[in-house]
User: Fold this.
Amino acid sequence: MISKSNLCTIAKAGMASKGVVYFITGALTCLAAFNLGGKKAGKSDALSFIDNQAFGNVLLLILAVGLFCYVFWRGIQAIQDPENIGSDKKGKVKRAAFFVSAVIYGALAVSAVMRVVSNSSGGSGSKPGSSLLTGDVGVVLFFIIGLSIIGAAVNQFHKVYTKKFLEKFNYKSITDSSKRKVIKNTGMAGLSSRGILFLILGYFFIRAAIESNTNNIKNTKDAFSFLENSSYGSILLGVVAAGLVCYSIYMFMMSRYRKFDF
Assistant:
């Protein structure tokens, strides 16, 4: 049985690693929006960026360990419910979201490890084949996924409107007003940007379901391209990308100041 203090340490390491991924993704895209270098980036592009740095393999392994910590924490939240979220309808939805988060970041962590293995063996890796989500089953799944992502977007905006995200911190006990402002402002900006991207991704999935086009799964980079191709595209892209940088700072603050109710 893992101790509470060790579980807190694992969770905080995972949050910091998630923050690193968001910082690289947001920074690269923000630079690209204003023609300062960089490129529209998704989570896999963050891994590529790290891979291309000096001691890239070491950095990737460190990040992978941190992401596995996050996966472990989300898995514990989903299965054991250490903070007593509950088993009512609302609680089940939250715990299901934690499980989905664990799967997503687990895949990212595995991808980081596979890059290191590929680099060590001199291989170039391989991309996955075409989607298996075809036919009527794929249409139904895409529609459900789209609705779920839009639901997640609404939840992000709800957190901003109610400021419930501050409940995750010992906010009133943080005496430094500048730190409190950083937590509040980066949280609001970051969650808003995530909400916008989730809305776009949800739209992509629902449109694909309606058009029975489930062979091409869209990702964050595609959502950035959608913003860039709209009116005032570069400005919108830059603002949303900057919001993801804010979210990364919010995650770093969470790894430092989050309270654990167990």
Notes: The helical segments are 4-33, 43-51, 56-79, 89-121, 135-162, 177-210, 220-228, 233-257. Confidence is low (pLDDT under 50) at residues 125-132. The CA atoms of residues 136 and 212 lie 8 Å apart. Residues 177-210 form the longest helix (34 residues).
